[in-house]
Protein 1
Amino acid sequence: MRGVLALLGLVAIPIPAMGQQRRWEHQVQDRLQRAIAAVGTASRLPVVQRSGMLNTDEVASFQTTLTQGTSYAIVGVCDDDCSRLQLTLVKPGGSEIAKERNSESLPALHFTPQATLSYGIRVVMEGCHWNPCWYAVAVIPLGKKAT
Amino acid sequence: MAAVRGWVVAGLVGCLALALAYLPPRGARGSRSSDDGFFIGQSPSGTPARQRAQALADEWRTADGSLDLLTARRRLQLLAQTAIASGRSLVVVSESAGVAAATPPVADSAARLAWQQLGLKETKVSVALIIQRMSVSSRGDRPVPEEQTAAYLAPDSTDRTTCIAVVSVGRWWTRIFTGDLRGRVPFDALVQTLKAGLGPCAFYAAYGTPGKSVRGWLVTRGWDLALTLDAGPRGRYYSSVIEMADPRPRWYWDAVYALPPTAVACLASRPDGCRAAVLAGASDNPAISSPDIMRVDRRWGRIPRLIEGQRFLGDVARAVGRDRFLTFWTSAQPVDTALAAALKRPVGEWTADWERAFVPPIRLGPTPPLGGMAIALAIAALALAIVAGSASRRQVR
C-alpha cells in the first residue's frame, strides 16, 4: 500500500515534454522507471517490462514466468491522455487471479505464486481521451517471501 | 341556400384532394416545360459495353489504389520513423506512375503550411502525404487515373500511429511541378488543395483514432462528414450549385431533387431530415474491414448526403471545443447519443441551424403552376356563377 501511495505521489510530478512526436512513449517509460525505483527490488530476478499503445477498450496480453515463493509487484502506467487502465493477472488455464481497476491510470497488483508457472498479464485501456494511449507494465520481483 | 353551400364545400374538398394528388412538388419539371428549348441537354450515358468497360476500369483503379497504399505502407515506414525521431509529424513524398519522384519544394512548403494552418503540431498520429502526380505519358494497357480523388490508409492498418494519404493532384498541378507551365505558382490554391487532401488523416492527426462507434459510422459513410478539418470561412468555397444559385431556375430544383430525400428535407430546415442525413450509417455493431482503406471522390458534381457535409465534423469540433469533441470522438456510446451530448442539443436541430448558414431554407410541398392556377380559378368562378344563376332562376317566389 505504501508503495502504491509513493507511486501516486510520483505521477503528480510534472514531466517536461520531450519535444518529439513520441513524447508519450518517453512519458510512460519515464514513469515506469520511477515506479520501479519507488517499489524497489531486493531480488536478483530481472524486472520484466512491456510497453505499447492501445485505443480505448482495446486489450493487450503477454506471458511471463513467475517463480514460486517470490513476491511480485505488477505495476502499470500510462500517458497523460489515459484515464483508466486495468491490469489482470491470469492463470495459465485462463482463470483470473487478481484484477486491479480502481487506481485509474496507475494500477498495481501484488502476488506470490504457489508454483513456478507462466502467468498471463492482461492490460485493458478502459479510458483514453486521445487515442492511442501509451502504456507500460513492469513485473517487479520483491524478493522471497518468508515462510 | 344551404344546399348550395354544401355543394360549394364538397367542390372545394374535391379540388383539394385533386391538388394533393396531382400537383407537382415545388420546382419539379412537368411533362412539357416552357424552359426546354429546341436543344435538350443530355448527359452521355454510353452503350452497355462502354458502361461495363468503365465499371471494370473503376474496379481496376480501386484495386491498384489499394495496392499502392499497401506498398507505400512498407516503403514509408522507415521514412516516417526518421521524421518522428526528428520531431516532425508530417512526411511529404511524391510519386508518378507508382515510382517515387523528388518532391517539388513548393509542394513540400505548401503541405507544411497546410499542416500549420490546420492547427496541427505535435500529434499522436503522424501523417505520410503522398502527392501523386499524373503520368505524362499514359499507358494504353491500363485505365487513366482519376483526378480529384484521394485514398487514405488508417493508422490501424499501418503501425497504428501513421495515417497515409495519397492525393492525386491532377494534370494542371503536375505541369506546374514539372515546370511545363511557366508563371507564378498559385501557392494559396496549392495550400488549400493539400489542406483538403489531408482529409480523414487530418482528423486522425488532430483527434487520434476514433472510438469504435464513431469510426464504424464514418467508415460506413465513406468519411463524407469528415473530409475537411478546416474548410475556412463559410461561403468562401462552394461544393454544390445549390449554394451558388437562387431558387428560381429549374436546374436549381433539379440539383435539389438529385439529393437524397433526407438531404432535401434538411435543406428545408426540417430537424428530422437533418438528423437522418447525419446519422445515416450509425449502427450498434459497425464492421470495419482490414486493411482500412478510405477512398474519397472530390469531383465537382458528385451527389453528397448532406450539402457541405464534408466540413460537418470540422465545424462541430470548432463549435464545441477540443475537449468536448474528443469526448464524442472516443465515446463508446452510440453516435447519436455521443454527438447530442457534445452539441448539448438534439443533432437534428443543431444541423438544421448549421445548414441554414450555407443555404437559405427552401420551401417544399406542392405548387400549382401560375397559369394553371389562373385558369382553374376562372373555371371555378364561372361554374359557381352558372350554378348560382340557375339556382336563383328556379326559385319560386
Protein 2
Amino acid sequence: MSTELDSLYQDIILDHAKRKLNSGLREPYEAEVHHVNPTCGDEITLRVHLDGDVVQDISYENLGCSISSASVSVMTELLVGKTLDEVEPIHAAFLEMMRGKGQVEPDEDVLEDAVAFAGAAKLTARIKCALLGWMAFQDASAQARSDAPKETDK
Amino acid sequence: MVATGSTSGLTGLLPELEIVRKDFPILERTFDAGSGERLPLVYLDSANTSQKPQIVIDTMVDHLERHNANIARAMHHLGAESTEAFEGGRDAVARFIGAPDRDEVIFTKNASEALNLVANTLMWARGDLRIGEGDEVVITELEHHSNIVPWQLLTERTGATLRWFGLTDDGRLDLSNIDELITERTKVVSLAWVSNMLGTILPIAEITRRAHEVGAIVVVDASQAAPQLPIDLAAMPAEERPDFLAFTGHKTVGPTGIGVLWGRRALLEQLPPFLGGGEMIATVRMEKSTYAGIPHKFEAGTPPIVEAVGLGAALDYLSHIGLDAIHAHEQAITAYALQGLATVPGVQVLGPLDASQRGGAISFELDGVHPHDIAQVLDSRGIAVRAGHHCAKPAHARFGVQASTRMSSYLYTTPAEIDALIEGLEYTRRYFKLA
C-alpha cells in the first residue's frame, strides 16, 4: 500500500511542499493572476516579472495540498532565469506528462525535479493539483508579454 | 470482515448491522494493498452519495428487463405497468416524508434542480408572490452552494436583497439577530435542515414559525436530513411546516438522476411552470398553451422513470429498517467518531461536538496535513472520505478554513470502520512525519 503512496509522495515533493521556494508576493511584476481549483478550492495568486525575454521572478502565495504547493515550488526553481523560449518546451513537457494518464515517460533532462510528479499524473484527482501553478504561470506570462493591465482576476 | 464485537458497549447501533451490511453488495469490495494483501473498503463518504442496497439494484434491473416503456402516454401493457411503477415511486416518496397530498411530490433531476425550480418560478411569479426591489430573501451561511447560488440569481435578477443568518463559533446558526433578519420585507427563507459540512441540525420549526408570522415562504433543503431524520410533514403544525422541501435520491440509498421537490399545493398551483414541454401541458395551440395540474405541470419531458422506481424501493427499504433506528445508529456512530477524533493530536472538528445536536457528517482539520493529502493516504488504506470545500465555501470561510476532510457515516457504518479511520489518521501523521 505504501509503495503507491511513496511513488506519489516522493521526497522531492514533500521537501518542496515544506520549503515552498520563491513563495511570497514580490515587486516588480508585469502580471498577476489568481487561479483556483474549483473542485477543491485550492488557490494561488501568482506574479510574473519579465526582463525583456527573461523570466526574472515568479512570486506567489498559495493555499493547497502538498502536490500543488510542491509543484509550483519546483516550477519556479525550474523556470526563473530562463528566457520565454527556453521555458516553453519545459512547460509543454510538464503538461504532456500530467495529461498523459501516467503513460508518458517524462524526459528528466527537460523536466529535472518535475519528473517527480509522474506519480500524480496517474491519479485523476491530483492532476489539477499539480497543474494549478503551471496554468497560473502560463496565464500570467502571456499577460505580461502582451502588456496586459496589471490587475487581473480569473 | 468488519467486526462490531469490540464495541458492544455502544448503544443505539442497528441491532442487525451485519445483516444490513449484506444488503449492500459494494461493501464487499476490496482493494489491492500492493503486497498481495486485500484491503476492505471503508466507505465514509455517504453524505456525498450513499451506497445502494440490492433491492434497489434489483428493482431497477427488473423494471428495465420487464416493464420498460414511456409513461402516461403509451397505450399498451408495458406503458401501463411503467406508469404504475413510476407513480408508485411518487407514492413511496409521499409516504416517506408524510406529504399531506401525493400530488405535491414533484420529481426533479436532483436537489439542486428542485431548489432552482422554486427560485426560478418565484422569479417569474406575479401577484402576491412577485419578488422585486425592497423584498428580501434570507438564507444561512452554512448552506450548500445549491441553496446559495439560485437565491443569488433570483435576487440579482429581481432587484431584491439577499440576506443570511451567520454562524456561531461552534457551528450553530446565530439566531441573535433573527428579528432584524426575518421582517415584513422577507419574502423567502431558504435553509438546510442538516448542514452537509458542519453536521449542524437547524431549528427548522422555530424559523418556519417566525417566517410564517411575516408571511414569508419557507424552503428547506433536506438533502442531508432525509437520509437520517424521520420526516412527517403532515404531522407538523401548519405554522411550523415548511412550504417547500427538497432532497435528492442518491443520498437516500436511491439512484442518481432523481430528486424530489415537495411543495404546498396552493403554492404549486399559483406558481408558473418551470420547464416547458411534453407532459406538463393540458393543451397546446400555436398561440398559447394551458398547463397540466400538479405534479405534472412541473415535470416537462420524459421523467427519470427507472430512477423513480428505484427511489421508491430505496425509501421503502429505509422505512422498513425505520428512520428512528437509522437516526439512533447515526448518532451512536457519530458520537463514537467524535470521541475517536478527539484522541488524534492536531485534529479539530468543525461544527457541534455533541452528537445529539448534529448529523452524521463530520468535517475536520488535521494540523500540518492538507485535506487532499489526508484523503490520499486514507484511500491507500481503502478508506473513502471527502476532501475539499464540500460545496460549502462560505461556511469554510466563516471558520477561516480553505478546505477540510469529511467523514460521513450511514446505516451500514460500523464502529470498526471508525477505528480504521482513526488508525488511518494516526498513520497519516506518521507518514507526514508529524508523529
